[in-house]
């Protein structure tokens, strides 16, 4: 473990979330998705905070889904992101898909999430 990761702030982990009911690939994908939400300036602040808590190991997915407030943050935040996706042109969607695939290939070359491929 590098000295940097020993001093990261909560929500800045260098290893995947470990949800017991998910496979390793699913946990890697969840971690990548949570980091993307955390770093997305257009994501609602409550959703970013939820991502930080999950990445920091302070909250598990089951806790989010069992708590009405957590569930509301998750669904409200995703609804806004879904609307953003729907409002994109087909060309912009394809450009984003290409970018995600390129990042996945780079990660696989580095040995991170090598088995996962975005849909």
TrEMBL record:
Residue span of region Disordered: 1-30, 85-119
Name recorded for this polypeptide: Uncharacterized protein
Ranges annotated as biased composition (Low complexity): 109-119
Basic and acidic residues: bias regions: 11-20, 94-106
Upper lineage: Bacteria, Bacillati, Actinomycetota, Actinomycetes, Kitasatosporales
């Amino acid at each position: 473990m590098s000295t940097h990761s020993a001093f990261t702030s909560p929500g800045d982990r260098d290893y995947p979330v470990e949800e017991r009911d998910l496979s390793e690939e699913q946990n890697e994908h969840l971690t990548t998705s949570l980091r993307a939400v955390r770093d997305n300036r257009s994501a609602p602040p409550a959703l970013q905070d939820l991502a930080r808590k999950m990445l920091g190991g302070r909250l598990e997915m089951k806790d989010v889904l069992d708590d009405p407030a957590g569930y509301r943050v998750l669904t409200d935040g995703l609804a806004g992101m879904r609307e953003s996706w729907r409002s994109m042109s087909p060309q912009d969607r394809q450009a984003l898909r290409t970018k995600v695939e390129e990042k996945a290939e780079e990660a696989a070359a580095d040995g991170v999430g090598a088995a996962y491929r975005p849909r």
